[in-house]
Specification:
The chain has one domain: Peptide Methionine Sulfoxide Reductase, Chain A (2-Layer Sandwich), CATH 3.30.1060.10. Helix content is about 35%, strand content about 15%. The protein contains seven helices and eight strands; from the N terminus they run αβαβαβαβββαββαα. The strands form two sheets. A six-stranded mixed sheet has the order 7-6-1-3-2-8, with helices on one face. It has a two-stranded antiparallel sheet with strand order 4-5. Strand 6, helix 5 and strand 7 form a beta-alpha-beta unit. Helix 1 packs across helix 7. The chain is globular, with a radius of gyration of 16 Å.
Length: about 230
């Protein structure tokens, strides 16, 4: 599928802005040097293989998806939308910024290989900058807000405790603005958005904003880093 004219225009505009900035992953400047501390509250690894899922929003879903596709224990990472209604879960509408949706990524993982706390640590360390309100790097609007969409009490409890821990420790120079909200529904994005960073590694937007995130993941979490299957 050919990317829509609105999508192309938006990415081109963002690229021009990003080119005027330093060539680092969008919004990762505060977290690029060292990973944040591991969560004090977490669940133990499961005794047997299984599946669990959580939805993250952290700016453009291309980069967030690319990061989690390289994390050990992640079964799938799907770009999509969360926060709005089904009838507005379409890229051209979400891009207007008034649908309530945020560009999001549904992470399905094996809790016997990786814990929720480890996923949260990756999310806050390299996937995005949790102190940027309604933006990530060159992309601005509520559709780029930082959010964790929980689907059970454990996810809410662990994520809330971790945000409190990081804020108390002043892990970032500014307060975390990540929203913690119950997941109403997740809607997969259009096919042309799936695996975008993997399929278009030399796209200037990917090269400037998203490939460094994957490099930071490999550098900061070598034991978690894997090549996608």
């Amino acid at each position: 599928m050919i990317i829509s004219s609105i999508a192309l225009a938006r990415r081109t505009r963002a690229l021009l802005i990003a080119s005027a900035l330093t060539l680092v992953a969008c919004g990762s400047s505060q977290a690029a040097t060292l990973p944040v501390a591991a969560p004090a509250v977490d669940t133990p690894l499961a005794a047997s293989a299984g599946k669990a899922s959580i939805v993250f929003s952290g700016g453009c879903f291309w980069g967030v998806q690319a990061v989690f596709q390289h994390v050990k224990g992640v079964i799938s990472a799907t770009s999509g939308y969360a926060g709005g209604k089904s009838e507005t879960a379409h890229y051209d509408m979400v891009s207007e910024g008034d649908t309530g949706h945020a560009e999001s990524v549904q992470v399905v993982y094996d809790p016997a290989q990786i814990s929720l706390g480890q996923l949260l640590r990756v999310f806050f360390s390299v996937a995005h900058d949790p102190t940027e309100l309604n933006r990530q790097g060159p992309d601005t609007g509520t559709q780029y807000r930082s959010a964790i969409w929980f689907s059970n009490d454990d996810q809410q409890r662990i994520a809330a405790a971790y945000i409190k821990q990081l804020n108390s420790a002043k892990a970032f120079s500014d307060p975390i603005v990540t929203q913690l909200s119950p997941l109403p529904a997740f809607y997969a994005a259009e096919d042309y958005h799936q695996n975008y960073a993997r399929l278009h590694p030399d796209n200037p937007y990917i090269f400037i904003n998203d490939r460094p995130k994957v490099a930071h993941l490999q550098a900061q979490f070598p034991k978690l880093y894997v090549e996608p299957r």
